[in-house]
Fold:
Amino acid sequence: MTISPTRNVGLAEAVVDLDAVAHNTAMFTERTSATVMAVVKADAFGHGAVPVAMAALSAGASWLGVATNAEALELRQNGISAPILSWIHGHDEDFRDALRLDVDLSASSIHHLTRIATAATSVGATAQVHLKVDTGLRRSGAQPDEWLNLVHHARNLEREGTLHVRGIWTHLISGVGSWAETTFAQRDLFDAAVEVAREAGLRPELRHLANSAAALHTPETEYEMLRPGIGLYGVEPDPSYVYGLRPAMTLRAHLNLVKRVPANTGVSYEHNYVTSKPSTLGLVPLGYADGVPRSAMAIGQVWFAGSRYPIAGSVTMDQFVADLGATPARIGDEIVLFGTGEHGEPTVAEWAAWTKTSPHEILTGIGQRVPRRYVGKFAEVAAIQG
Ligand SMILES: *Cc1c(COP(=O)(O)O)cnc(C)c1O
Structure:
């Protein structure tokens, strides 16, 4: 006897257009001579790390960027051999597997550098390290007053042969055009830090600081490598410029139930919504556990049969209701939460604006209960591994 289904087919799905990912990747690679690292952390912003990595690599990206070593290992275990950098490491991280699988490692502190060197000695590898300097974000990266120590320490370890400093990098406070002045100040601090490293004897081949926004708007941040994330998924990183990126994910569901109700009908928990006229209510089997923000109540819209309709009342854990007005609707009809926007459907950028968050948060919040389905010419490859 077979037990099925294990995937929630028939409720909802996130359709990921890998051709859009390839198109967006090319938007970055074709305008630069720098190397492009496709940032596929957090399961490629919820799109699926392995299929997205394959699509991005085939469209001209040559590096992959991830937050954790577990994410890097997932890529390697699925046969991806492109260079990978991982940058968030636990205080007690065991780097041996990452080194065996040839993953480049970021280090912001002597603490991590020492652990990387110890692991490299233990597996007999030379670790490839990217030293990170904090130029103002105050997140990871060594503070300027720690930098000299860090580079000398790294240089000593290089002499011992346990590691090589392949890269020096930093992250911007904001890559968008209106922050250009801050970006230039960060770049100056970055240049100074690279100079200090060179004086200490390091010879980094890769300097990198640009995210999607900076890669598109501030060519002065280019150096040898760019690190686009959100742009690969088709979200314009600075809404004041439109480059023609194509949203890669469409989040759609099938109405699970439809009911006709009279005017003055309260809907969902605590009746936060009351119909103003006789209405068709469509039950959508997606809730906040699937990443639909509760704050979309009273502001979020969905796309049904060619028009937009409001979310009626509270978004609950597993479902919400859409007020479809006078439009005829049937069980199983398709409803779109966000998509490319080409036909008038909402985009992930609109959902982010409605709910006062970033498109990154909406995309990475789409839960594991929602099956991903891949379309485009890389979809077959994805189906094999998925
Ligand atoms: C997420 C991330 C990126 C990608 O940034 P986007 O704004 O999504 O392009 C680049 N670099 C680092 C260090 C990141 O954490």
Notes: The first strand starts at residue 12 and ends at 17. The mean pLDDT is 95. The pocket of pyridoxal-5'-phosphate is lined by residues 39, 41, 87, 171, 211-213, 227-231, 237 (CB under 6 Å).
